[in-house]
Specification:
Elements (H helix, E strand, L loop, with lengths): L1 H13 L3 E5 L5 E4 L1 H7 L11 H4 L8 E9 L6 E10 L5 E7 L1 H23 L2 E7 L4 E4 L1 H7 L9 H7 L2 H17 L3 E7 L8 E11 L5 E10 L1 H14 L10 H13 L4 E9 L1 H8 L1 H17 L6 E6 L2 E7 L3 H16 L11 E9 L5 H17 L5 E3 L5 H20 L2 E10 L5 E10 L9 H9 L3 H19 L7 E5 L1 H4 L4 H12 L6 E6 H6 L1 H14 L2 E7 L4 H5 L7 E4 L1 H4 L6 H16 L3 E4 L5 H9 L4 E2 L8 E2 H6 L23
Parallel strand pairs: 14-15, 17-18, 18-19, 19-20, 20-21, 21-22, 22-23
Antiparallel strand pairs: 1-2, 1-5, 3-4, 4-5, 6-7, 6-10, 8-9, 9-10, 11-13, 11-14, 12-13, 16-17, 16-23, 16-24
Helix pairs in contact: 4-5, 10-11, 14-16, 16-18, 18-20
């Protein structure tokens, strides 16, 4: 027994749990070293002292599980103690004191971390879930339950969750989970949820992994769910802007050609309509652009209302529309075109232009066709409708190629003009709005071969761009511009030349430009290249490569017709340009339409933030100048500021007539960049 007593004494001396004995008044009769360390008094000096005085808060009668927070010179400045008091014998009490500081601190830290995680989930619109497979029990985080519309702690099984999932997405989720359970691989999916009546649809992006036992049997599935509703809405809005005509709300050229391409890629057949309003220019000239815009919107609504939901209608630009009719043969498509023609004719107009008519070309498509071929065939049929007197529907026939011979004659004239000096450059000034000072000129091509009929740029440039001839024309324009800069070394003389979409695909063009500049000794900054938004988006990689090559040498690169489909906003970060030209569609009504002012202000702010110059096109009247200057636009171009004149006249220093913001108002004038 004496040996056992010595052992017990040694155990108590070495224990990290404090033990002490007091009388009924709390006076200590014995303590082990651990309790003495807690009390901060040497063991030999403790006997006879009051435990409640040394350890405030200690119970004076039997009690268990009392937690005390006491100050301490150790660790973090405090100590958590768990104190238990039991009767020993007679009037004596046995105290047991355990230091639980480390455990309580870890518990508090875990609680804080859990709270921080929950707050992070709430702020980040993200939650977690666990599926315990054997129990078929799903545990949802409080943050995720709240996003589902339930209070924290709600019990929600998989069937209850499935009832909230959009019916079209449920099968996809089930298939994804089944595959993950089979393979053990991580998974992800995006789905919609319908939380309840009156609550808008929400989007969730989910990621997860499967935990398995040693045999590979799934034990638990862990997942996260991120509420991406806001991001999805922004994505959908940007996508709509990128593929939507800003004036009519219809699909734009990009969306129409992509739908046609999708139809052909999936083996679909049907027909395409190409509609062009007859003499719509007269509406703008006689009634004004505001009336023209209202009519365009009314036409779009009338046309769309006559079509089935599966039939896509879009505005290709200007007064031209296209309709994709899946599953419609030529005869049925022609009947649909006649319905649309009648709908257009029923729109009333008051004034000199009583009615508006439409000419239509119909082209069938099927397996083996390309969207370019279908569009070209519809264009040939449309051309035949125009030639036959307008306000007609014409179905494409192979014989229409005969009409193309007339267009070939245009190419023959262009080739002859290129070889024998029948091409001429005209210069249109780009003007500082505040001062009227000319900062540079855009060079525009004219055919002056002396032959009849006279062909304007709108008549010969499209034909050139459909052939390789445009490559030679672009090089001629560039060389002529550089030669003029050599002959007139004035650094204030700066030219912008237009580059066609076909030339963007010419891998040798960039080298040609740099060689000509280097040979001529012309400062690269005096030459700028303009690339239209349509050409840049269609040939994004080529446009980027050319821009990088020329800008690195010091040339200016301008994105023309910026904002015409909003697609260019997405591509701005990919194109190393130095400036933009604001599309005239936003400028022509800038002094009367608040929507145009908001859009232009946004474009100007973006340009300023990216360090780009911004030029407004189609400036046709003084009121536009004032509105543009209020919005921060500094440079403009248009008939009000200066009409195109022969380049030779600019180089000779002869006056061009009124030029600048102080020139008189020109009623009915159109921006020369369109001619």
């Amino acid at each position: 027994m004496n040996g056992d007593g010595a052992l017990h004494r040694e155990v108590l001396d070495r224990a990290d749990v404090g033990f002490g004995v007091t009388d009924h008044g709390g006076v200590l009769a014995w303590v082990n070293p651990a309790l003495a360390e807690v009390l901060g008094v040497p063991a030999e000096q403790v006997v006879g002292r009051s435990l409640p005085a040394l350890l405030p808060g200690a119970p004076e009668r039997p009690r268990s599980g009392l937690a005390l927070l006491t100050p301490s010179a150790h660790r973090s400045g405090h100590r958590w103690l768990e104190v238990e008091c039991r009767p020993l014998d007679g009037d004596r009490l046995l105290y047991r004191v355990v230091d639980v500081t480390a455990w309580r601190d870890r518990e508090l830290e875990a609680t804080h971390e859990a709270d921080a995680l929950r707050r992070a989930q709430v702020l980040g619109r993200m939650g977690t879930w666990e599926w315990h497979v054997a129990e078929d029990r799903v545990v949802w985080s409080d943050a995720l339950l709240e996003m589902f519309g339930f209070p924290p702690g709600t019990s929600l099984d998989f069937d209850g969750y499935a009832a909230l999932v959009h019916p079209d997405d449920l099968a996809m989720i089930q298939a994804t989970l089944e595959e993950a359970m089979r393979s053990g691989a991580g998974f992800s999916y995006t789905h919609r949820m319908l939380p309840g009546e009156g609550v808008p649809q929400r989007w969730f992006e989910c990621f997860g992994e499967v935990e398995t036992d040693a045999d590979g049997t799934p034990v638990r599935v862990l997942g996260t769910a991120h509420d991406i509703t806001r991001a999805r809405r922004v994505h959908d809005e940007l996508l709509a802007l990128a593929e939507q005509d800003p004036l009519t709300g219809l699909a734009n050229r990009r969306a129409v050609t992509r739908e046609l391409e999708r139809e052909l890629a999936t083996g679909g057949s049907g027909s395409m309509l190409l509609l062009d309003l007859d003499n719509f220019k007269d509406v703008n000239d006689l009634r004004g652009h505001a009336v023209g815009d209202r009519l365009m919107k009314a036409l779009a609504a009338a046309l769309r209302s006559r079509l089935a939901p599966s039939q896509l209608i879009g505005r290709l630009g200007g007064d031209e529309f296209a309709v994709v009719l899946p599953g419609c043969g030529p005869a049925q498509a022609a009947r649909t075109a006649e319905v649309l023609r009648d709908a257009v004719a029923q729109l009333p107009l008051v004034g000199p232009v009583g009615t508006v008519t439409v000419s239509t070309g119909v082209a069938e498509y099927g397996s083996g066709d390309t969207w370019e071929l279908v569009l070209a065939n519809a264009d040939l049929a449309l051309y035949a409708s125009k030639a036959a007197g307008r306000n007609r529907v014409t179905v494409y026939e192979p014989g229409h190629y005969a009409d193309t011979a007339k267009r070939v004659s245009v190419l023959d004239r262009l080739r002859a003009a290129l070889d024998h000096g029948g091409l001429e450059l005209h210069a249109m000034p780009m003007v500082q709005l505040a001062t009227g000072r000319t900062l540079g000129h855009e060079l525009l091509l004219r055919l002056v071969d002396g032959k009849e009929p006279y062909l304007g740029p709108a008549e010969f440039l499209p034909e050139a761009e459909r052939s390789d001839l445009v490559l030679d024309i672009d090089r001629w324009v560039l060389s002529t511009a550089i030669d003029a800069l050599v002959r007139h070394p004035d650094p204030e003389l700066r030219f912008n030349v237009n580059v066609s979409g076909r030339t963007l695909e010419d891998e040798d063009f960039g080298g040609f430009v740099l060689d000509r500049l280097a040979t001529a000794g012309v400062a690269p900054g005096r030459l700028g290249l303009e690339i239209t938004e349509t050409a840049a988006v269609t040939n994004l990689d080529a446009a980027r490569a050319l821009s990088l090559q020329l800008r690195a040498f010091g040339c200016r690169i301008t994105l023309d017709d910026f904002g015409s489909g909003f697609g260019s906003f997405v591509h701005l970060k990919h194109l190393p340009i130095t400036g933009i030209k604001i599309d005239g569609e936003f400028v022509r009504g800038i002094d009367g339409r608040s929507t145009d002012a908001v859009l232009v202000a946004g474009i100007v702010e973006i340009a300023r933030g990216l360090g780009l110059s911004a030029v407004a096109e189609w400036v046709e009247r003084p009121a536009q100048v004032e509105a543009l200057m209020r919005l921060g636009v500094r440079i403009g171009q248009g008939f009000h500021l200066g009409r195109p004149v022969p380049l030779a006249q600019v180089l000779s220093g002869r006056p061009n007539g009124p030029n600048g913001a102080l020139s008189p108002r020109m009623a009915g004038a159109e921006d020369g960049a369109r001619s």
